[in-house]
Specification:
The structure is a homodimer of 219-residue chains. Chain A has 2 domains: 19-157, Jelly Rolls, CATH 2.60.120.10; 173-219. Helix content of chain A is 46%, strand content 19%. Chain A has helices at 28-38, 44-53, 109-114, 135-144, 146-172, 175-185, 187-192, 195-202, 206-217; strands spanning 55-59, 64-66, 74-80, 83-88, 94-100, 105-106, 121-124, 128-134. In chain A, helix 1 (28-38) crosses helix 5, helix 4 crosses helix 5 (146-172) and helix 8 (195-202) packs across helix 9 (206-217). The termini of chain A are far apart. The A-B interface holds A 87, 89, 93, 95, 97, 109-110, 113, 119, 152-153, 156-157, 159-161, 163-164, 166-168, 170-172, 200-203 and B 87, 89, 93, 95, 97, 109-110, 113, 119, 152-153, 156-157, 159-161, 163-164, 166-168, 170-172, 200-203. Chain B binds a DNA duplex (30 and 30 nucleotides) through helix 9.
Chain lengths: 219, 219
DNA sequence: CGATTCTTTGAAAACAGTCAATCTGTGTGG
DNA sequence: CCACACAGATTGACTGTTTTCAAAGAATCG
């Protein structure tokens, strides 16, 4: 997919809009994130390198960050907003596999690292501001800033552990228990994403989720 | 958990047996694995370091490599045999979340890196030979051999992608489709592990799997 | 305000789980 | 070597849960 940032031309069929915006502190969340995940401080010089490797971009609600079939050429660090990653099956049913909020990353890792066409769509569920970077920029950063490498190691480990937990939940818990887990661990998701998407994420129908919620209320 | 390798004393309640065995080529699969996953050649000197960081150990069928509640202090590279990783719920039902065969790793990543008690059991489904290493040994290797670091990066990415795919399968495919996927992608698992474990891995009952297989035969 | 999207509700059908009995193959001890 | 025990697989009847379909109600956005 062509995100349109580094290209001057809007691709046919895509609903991009450009809005130039920058502010002094818009890279701060990213800096803080890197410091948190690497356990190291970022110097002024490193900070400048990081800034120049990331480009701000805004996405309107419902706008695609990535479409199935395209290669995910960018990783997006979310400054503000909400996105979802999902596939669409033969019957046209959407299956949400990931939610992203502030200070989370969006992008299909497999497609991004392997340069293969993505199976997934990613779109904005709210108006969203992100910082985008490419594989090459990231590679350069990793080579020149040790903290970046550490951050990725930590991220990889945590996301591996998180997905492992999710698999465990999906095979050993009932739909109701999975919902309880989610609302305990990620209450923010329930408030930012519509229930039909939450249901899809949990692997159940919207109707079933509605009934689970009703039952939970009466307790 | 105490695996008993580096300790001279057998822990009460554990069914360990010791059997000293070494051979010239027993580290070869590990070397090849590292070279494959890092894309780099291992020098003779590096090979020696690797050998000294891993200890061979044999596990008998049904023997635990890790018990829930213990910290996973070792990562095991499987030379020969078959293992499974699973949790046990309140009702005593086992839920398999991982299978390991030759040239795969076994060990609870979360417990191993965070030093927290593991939720999972790992046991041998066949008589199994592994190469064990500790966090400290691994850390040292990573610092002195660049290929080891690369190998882990690749492993992390692949396992993340694999778990992502599995989540996708678990929420968007029916039990039958999941079984088809498994038999297409990992036919070896079906031949090495009993059906009740396969069923558990797929998140369905052994009876349901039996019926799915029967239906598949008649096609 | 009107249109669209999201949520809720009901009833029927499909699906998977549970329980219990039987069958099969394996390995063990007498 | 045989008999027996045991683990694993299969089958049927039943139960419970989830999906599907359809319709109505609520909330949101332009």
């Amino acid at each position: 997919m062509v995100l349109g940032i580094f290209e001057p031309v809007i691709q046919p069929g895509y609903d991009f809009y450009f809005f130039s915006f920058t502010s002094d502190n818009m890279y701060e969340p990213l800096k803080k994130y890197i410091e948190d995940y690497s356990g190291e401080a970022i110097s002024e010089e490193e900070y400048e390198m990081i800034k120049s490797a990331f480009t701000p971009k805004k996405f309107r609600k419902k706008q695609y960050l990535l479409q199935a079939g395209d290669v995910s050429r960018y990783m997006a660090f979310i400054i503000k907003g909400a996105v979802r990653q999902y596939s669409v099956d033969d019957k046209g049913v959407e299956h949400v596999i990931y939610f992203g909020l502030e200070n989370w990353w969006a992008g299909d890792r497999e497609s991004f690292t392997m340069l293969t066409p993505s199976r997934y769509n990613i779109d904005a569920v709210e108006d969203t501001e992100v910082l985008l970077t490419t594989y090459d920029h990231l590679d350069q950063l990793k080579n020149s800033i040790p903290a970046i490498g550490k951050m990725f190691t930590t991220m990889d480990q945590r996301s591996y552990i998180a997905t492992q937990k999710r698999i465990h939940a999906s095979i050993s818990l009932t739909a109701e228990e999975r919902y309880q887990e989610l609302s305990k661990n990620y209450p923010a998701l329930l408030q930012r994403f519509p229930q039909n998407m939450i249901a899809s994420y949990l692997g159940i129908s919207a109707e079933t989720l509605s009934r689970i919620r009703k039952k939970a209320l009466s307790k």
